[in-house]
C-alpha cells in the first residue's frame, strides 16, 4: 500500500493563505516559525479532543461545528457542496487546487476529511494525526467516532436532500482528476495519499467506510482510465509526428523539433507508467477484494466500473484477465450484481469492433448467459435476453439452435418486458432477412408483398410452439419491433382469399386457422393499444401520438375488413373455429366509416352472412360471436342502427316463432318424440339462449314456454340433458333482464309482483333439479341457483335500490341443506371418482384440469353465499374441515373464505372453525371407536388442521381475543359433553379433543388463560386432577398449555414443563435479578399479578365465560413436575383455611409428605393433601431458583471475562468481508482453466490497514463479525479472566470439558 509521506516536524501552517480559512483560524505555530501564542479557546489542542466530545459541536472560538478551523472550513464547504449538488463542481475543484498549490498538506488534509465525512463519520483527522499516525490507526480512531445510534450514511440515507449526493460525489472525484491530470496527479504525493487512504478504508469492517471508499476508488479508477486513454492518444499522435518529421529529407528535417518530440514522448511515457501504477494500486488494493464483498451494493459498484473501463480503454482492459471477473460474478446470489454484469457486457457486445476479443469469453460463459434468461429476477432475465440479441447481431454461429429455442418460448411469458425482449430476439433471428426490393419498381402488395414470406414464417412458428396456443401473447411480444409487419392486413387478407401464384405453396387448413387467429390479435392490439389479459401493467395514459396512431389504425381496419369480411365469412362459413374469430372483427370497427365511406352494401352483405351462419351452426361459441357482432353493430349513435336493428328483429322473430311451434309439438308427442324433434328444439333453444345473453328479448314471452319445458322434464324425467341445461340458462336470462329493467326505477307494481313470482318459482324448479340423475344438469341448476340467491339477497337493496326490497329472497333451511350436500357430494371427491369426465379419457391431463376447474367454480359459487351471509356461516364448517385434505385443489378458496368470514364476525367464525374440528372428531370416533390411538394418522390430521386454523388468527391477540375465548369455551364443553363409556371414573368420551384444542392455547392472552383454566376446572372433579393414566394425558396437556406463559414473573422450568409458582413461594423467594432472557425491569410482583387477575375475572370478564364457581384453582400455581406420579392439581382452600407458609418443612414432613399437618382449624382429607402438595412443590421451586441464580452469576462473569480477553479477537486470518465469495471454489477452478490470467503487476508495501478487531467497536461491524452469545455457546475452551472466582472457573470447565456440555444449554 502506498503510505502517506511523513510531514517534517518543523512544518509550519501558514496563517495568511488563499484557502477559505477565516481570519481567526487557530494555528499552532506562527508563519515565521517562532513559537507564538496564537491559539484561542480550545484550538491549541491541535485537533485532539476529549473523550466525551466525539466530534460534537462546541461554541469555542476557532471551531466550526465542533471541528478545528485548520481543517474544518474547507472540509465543510466541500461536503456541503457535494451534498446540495447545486453549485458548479469545476469551480469548487479549481479552488481546492489553488489551495493545494499554496499548501498541499492542508488541502490534502481537507480532502481526507471530506472522504471521512462522506462516509457518515463525525470524526475529524487532525494535523497531528495526519503527521504521526499510520492509516490503520487513523481509521481505527475514526471508527470510534461513528454515530452509534444510526446505521445510515450519506450513500444510503433516504430523503430529498440526499437524493443527488451519490451523483455529486462521483462527479466531484471525476472533475478532481480531470482538473489535476496535467500536473498534480504526477507529484507522487496527492494520489499516493488518497489511494492509500481509500485502500485502507475499503478494507474496514465498517460498512459505511467500505461502501463509500470503494465507490470513491472505483470512480477514481474510471477517471484515471480516461487520463490514461488521453495519454495513449497523445503518445500515438506524438509518435506519428516524430515519424513524419524523421522521414523528411535531411535538409528539411528540424532536429530541434525531433528532440522536442522525443522529450514529449518520454514525458508521456513516464506519465503513462505513473498512471498505470496508480490504476494497478487501486485494482489490486480495492477491486480484487471488493468485487466479492459481502455487501451486494459494493460488488455491483465494482462490476459496473470494470465494465466502463473495458469499454473506454479496450486496448488495456478488454482481455480475459479482466473479463473473468465479470464472468465469475454472473453467478452472484444477488440479482442486482448479476444485472450489472449483463449491462457491462452489453456495452462491450454493442461495439462490433470488439467482438474478436470476446470470442473466448463468449465460448466459456455463453451457457451461463443463456441460463440467465430464466433468472428469477425479471430485470436480469430481460437484460440477459438483450445481451443474447447483441451476440446474435455480432455473429450467427455462436448460438446453437438449442440456445435460440430456450429464448423463443419466452415470447409467451406473462411478464411483458421479458416477452418483449424475447420478441426482439425472435424478430432478429427469423425476420431480419428481407427480400431486397428493386429500386424504381412499384411497391408490391398482397401475396407479392415482401412481408408475405415473413407472415408465413410467423404462422409456422406459432404452429410449432406446441406448448403455447396464445396468439395474442405472440403478437404482443413482436408488436414493438415488428408492428409494420403485423399491421400488413392487406397481405394477410390476400393470403386467405387470393389463389396462390404459380410455384407457390398454398396454406393448408391448419395454417389458415392460425393466420386468422393472428390477424384477429393484431387487429385487437392496434384498436385497443394495450397488452392482452394477464400481461398488462395497469392502465397507461396514451400520448397524443399514440392516440392518433390508434385512430388511423381503426380507420384502416374498417376500410379493409368492411370489404373483405363478407367474402371471408362466405369462404369459411362452415368452419366454426375460423368463423368465430372472423366474427369478432366488427367489434373493432369505426362504424361511422360505413356511412362516410359509402360501404352500406358491404354492411348488407355482412348481415346476410351472419344470418346464414346462425342458421347453419349450433355451436355455442359461434352463436355467441354472432350475438356479440349484432350487439356491436346495434349502436344507436350511428346511422346504421336502424338497418341492423331491423335485421336482428327479423332473425329473432323467426327463431322465437320456430321455437314455440317446435316446443308445442315436442311436448304433445311426449315419450313418442323422436331424436330429430329433440334436435330441432335444442338447436333453436341454443340460438335463442345465445342471443338472450346480449340482447333483451323481454318482448317475447320466453319464461312461460321454458318453465313449461322444465316442468315437463321434472314430471317425465326423460328430458334430454342439453335441452334442460339451455332451458335453465335461458330462463335465468329472462329473470335477469327483467331485474335490470326494474333496477332503473321506472317500473310498475305489477312487474315487480310478476318478477317476484317468477323468481321464486324458478328457484324451486332449480332446487328440484338438484336431485336429477344427470350430473351436468345438477351442476347447471346449482350454479344458477347460487347466482340467483346471491343476486336477490339482502345486498340488492343497497346503493339506493330500496324499492327492490320486495324481491329479496332468503333460502330456507332445506334449500341450504341441499346446496351443502351437493357441494360435499360433487366437489370434495377424488379425481378418479369424477364420473363427469370419464369417457375413456380419464388419463387425459387436459380433461382432469377442466374437471377440476369446474369443481372449483362450484365451490366458489357456494363460498360466495357464505361470505355474503346468504346461508348460515355455520354451514361453512363442512367446507373448512376439508382444508387439509384438499389443500392442493381448493386451499386458496377455503382460506380466502375463512378470511372473509372472520372479517364479518370473528366470534361466529371461531365457532365455525371449532365446529368443523368437532365434526372431524366425531367422524373419527365413528370409524375407529372410542379406544382409538392418539398417534393415528386420523387424529394427527385433525391436530394439524387445528394448527393451521390457529395460524390464520395472526399475531394480534387483542383483535381475536373474544373469538379465541369462545373457541376454547365451545371446545371444553364438547370435550366433557359425553360421559365416559367405561362408566363413572373413566375419561369422558371426547376428552381427547382437548389435545386438539391445545393448538389454540398460544393465541390466548395471559389473563385469558387463567379464565379459560378456571372454566375448564368447572367440568373437572378432584379425582380427574389426580389421574395419571395415558387416557388422561389430553387433559394434562391442555392444562399445561393454559398455564405455560400465564405468569411470566414466576416462570420456572422443571422436567421440561413450565408453570407458575404459588403466592406463598413468591412471597418468600424473590425472583433472581438478571435471569437470562428476562429483564428485571419487566418483572412484576406476584401480589400485584394476583390482584390484577382477580380484578380481570370480576370486571373484565370475557363475554363467553360464565361466573366462576366457589372452589376453583388458585390464580398463581406451584411449579409442576413432569408427567410423574407426584404431579397433582392444586385447588385453592377457602381463605380462612389457608395454612401459614413454611419455607423449611420439618424433615419428618419430607420423608412422609402425605402425613397431614395439625392446625387449630380442622381440615378434611382433600384439603390436607392439597396443602401438603403445595408445601412440597414450594421447596422444589425454591431450590430450582437458587440454582438458576447461581448459574446466572456464573454466566455473567464468564461473558465479561471472555469479552475482556484478547485471545479470541487477535490474529484474524482474513477479512470477513473477503471471505464471502459468490462463486464456489470448484466453479472458479473450472472457469480459470484455459483463461489468460496475466495482469499488470506492481509491488506494493504490505498493507498496514489490516483490521485489529479487538481494538475496534463491534457495534459498527457487519453482523457476521459480531460475537454474540451463540459464539460463547460453541466454545469448548474458554479463556477466563483472572478476576473470575476459581470455584466458578473449575465448575464451568468441568461442565464444558468433561461432560461436553455446551455453555448455551446450561
Automatic annotation (TrEMBL):
InterPro entries: ARM-type_fold, Cohesin_Scc3/SA, HEAT_SCC3-SA, SCD, STAG. The keyword Cell division applies. It comes from Characodon lateralis. Keywords: Cell cycle, Cell division, Chromosome, Chromosome partition, Coiled coil, Nucleus. SUPFAM superfamilies: ARM repeat (SSF48371). Residues 1117-1126 have a biased composition (Basic and acidic residues). It holds the Pfam family SCD. Component of cohesin complex, a complex required for the cohesion of sister chromatids after DNA replication. The cohesin complex apparently forms a large proteinaceous ring within which sister chromatids can be trapped. At anaphase, the complex is cleaved and dissociates from chromatin, allowing sister chromatids to segregate. Residues 1055-1064, 1152-1162 have a biased composition (Low complexity). PANTHER family: COHESIN SUBUNIT SA-2, STROMAL ANTIGEN. PROSITE patterns: SCD. Part of the cohesin complex which is composed of a heterodimer between a SMC1 protein (SMC1A or SMC1B) and SMC3, which are attached via their hinge domain, and RAD21 which link them at their heads, and one STAG protein. Residues 1-70, 1055-1162 are annotated as: Disordered. Residues 287-372 form the SCD domain. Residues 228-281 form a coiled coil. It is found in: Nucleus; Chromosome; Chromosome, Centromere. This is Cohesin subunit SA. Its main location: nucleus. It comes from the Eukaryota. The keyword Coiled coil applies.
